[in-house]
Amino acid sequence: MLKDMKLEDFVEELASKSPAPGGGSVAALCASLAAALSCMVFNLTQGMKGYNEYSEDKKKSIDYSLLEATEIKEAFIKLMEEDVIAFLELMETFKLPKSEEKEIKFRKEKIQKGYIKALEIPLEVANSAMKIYDHVEIAVMHGNKNAISDAGVAAILTQASIEAAVLNVKINLSSIKDEEYKKRIKEHCEYLLQQAAARKSEIITVVNSQIQ
Predict the structure, then answer these.
(1) What is the CATH number of domain 21-211?
(2) What is the share, in percent, of the chain residues with pLDDT greater than 90?
(3) Which end of the chain is more exposed for a tag (fewer CB within 10 A), N or C?
């Protein structure tokens, strides 16, 4: 399993000619790292003087974000594995027999289902990564100011995760025959990219204003 690999071994596997893990798993990893950096900022904030002077509502928002970001961090590790599994399952469908009409029809149907399953994982990554911005924003606004650059990096990684995930959605979507389905997914992806870019820009603007 990817999560059990040493970092160096994972990087070597990623660099090899094996097509999996690939960009989809890296997109999920970026999201997990973004959530982890948010957790770090919250952990460096709790118990500090500034934190103790916050209102109870602000403390609760920090505490809640830490719990949520911790869960999100773990969820994206699982999505790394699921992306590999979905890809390998798709590759298996191309090995199905195709000598008879029934076999050809069955194979085509399985391939289409395989592509849909393969794109649903990065689509989930993109959708879920959007939620990270909520926690990054709290880290930037109320977190330990000495770690605000780390919160900024979390925002950058979140954006990278979403853009990378959408690319993996699109590459699988290009092989889908259902035009109505393709149109719906494409429109949703464009919406995600626009919303994500706007949120990242807002957060990075705040970060830069604090460290200049």
Answers:
(1) 1.20.120.680
(2) 92
(3) C
